[in-house]
Amino acid sequence: MPDRADAVVIGGGVIGTSAAHHLAEAGVDTVLLERGSLGGGASAHTAGMVRTYFPGDPHTGRMAVRSLNAYHEFAGRTGAPLGLRRLGFMVLFTDEQQIAAFEAGLPAQRAAGVGVHLISAAEARALNPLIGEHAVLAAAWSPEAYHVDGLDIVRGYAAGARNHGARLFTHTPVTRIDDDNTVHTPRGSIKADSIVCTAGPWSGEVAGMASVDLPMTPRAIEMLFTDVPDVPDVPDTAHHELPMTMHATSGLRIRSWKDRILLAMGMPGAGETREAWLGRISGHLGTLFPALDGIGLHRAWSGDFDASPDNTAFIGEHPTRRFLYAAGFTGAGLCQAPAAGEKLRDLLIVK
Question: From 53's CA, which of 3, 67, 161, 193 has a CA 20 to 30 Å away?
Fold first, then answer.
């Protein structure tokens, strides 16, 4: 552990390693501290998708467009290929008001650079043959959505950061932060000219050590697998890679995962049993995707992510001390990590 650094990044997921890479690439003496293994937190508990369309949120879409461009250039910047695989992203509309809201927001989405357009129910079924014949009225279709392994992003950015001189310490939790930006860990203490908080669900805890208030709350999510589908009317189900498909009303999301379907719909609500929650999911599945009616559901993995009050990430700096932060990505950190790292770099360098 060095005695000091220009920047100490706390958190080694996609946001933290992106920050470390962009700072080190810009010539900033950078140290990253991660309480566990790189990418072992929220970055490891995602559906493995990067997309640019976020319904009703063109600001996040603008960040995601900027980030997707960076992912297409990732190998050239870091030396590590990502293997992006296009799947597309579809949002199913089941009432006319949802269609009207989509059309009203379309100019702002396109101004942000997001590629999305309205398609008919028949076109939606052609893209995802599991959709019931009379289940939806129309859908939003955004082809710029890709499968990616989040750990490949973390490893690539970590390698790029090291290549530019950054030092990365894993299994090094932060235990205290002094008023002069001295960061204490079980492996020693380091004086930071600037602290960069990118600790995901633990960002509020880290910020609190520095007497900084970040208004965010960790939120849990559970991913589920179905049984292997047996769909006589869609004989190519096991080989037809489905786009990520989201129901606008319930938030239910499904996508292909090898020979099964991966799905998510948050976690049980307050006072709701897990059995009742699974029953709600099964009900939506049976309505939207009749071929999956009654299919078995099994826990895939679960984890926490950092949620902001309005589900939009906040990236900035404290007005009176050299403490920067990027948090509140609400499950969309993979989609915004490159742009977040660039913004943190720019904030720090101009100081």
Answer: 161
Contact 63, 52 (CB under 8 A): no
- Tell me whether strands 4-10 and 30-33 are parallel, antiparallel or unpaired: parallel
The single-letter code of the amino acid at 182 is T
> Taking phi first (over 0 means left), then psi (-120 to 50 degrees means alpha), and beta for anything else, what does residue 98 get?
alpha
Predicted TM-score (pTM) of the model is 0.92
Beta bridge partners of 190: 183
Bridge partners (DSSP) listed for residue 194: 7
| pLDDT value of position 238 | 47
Q: Quote the CA–CA distance of 68 and 66 in Å, as a whole number.
A: 6
CB atoms within 10 A of CB 200: 27
Q: Are the C-beta atoms of residues 197 and 325 closer than 8 Å to each other?
A: yes
Instruction: Please list the residues that pair with 4 across neighbouring strands.
Output: 191
CA 304 from chain centre, in angstroms, equals 11
Edge-to-edge order in the sheet of strand 49-51: 49-51, 145-147, 85-86
What angle is formed at CA 7 by the lines to CA 52 and CA 3, rounded to 5 degrees? 150
Mean of pLDDT values over 43-47 = 67
Average pLDDT, integer, range 150-161 = 95
Burial of 274 (0-12, 13-18, 19+ CB in 10 A): exposed
Is residue 192 within 8 A of residue 5, CB to CB? The reply is: yes
| Integer angstrom CA distances of residue 62 from 11, 271, 273, 310, 332 | 24, 37, 38, 16, 13
- Per residue in 183-236, pLDDT (tens digit) is 999 999 999 999 999 999 899 999 999 999 998 887 888 999 999 887 655 545
Question: Three-class SS of residue 167?
Answer: strand
> Do 223 and 205 contact (CB within 8 A), yes or no?
no
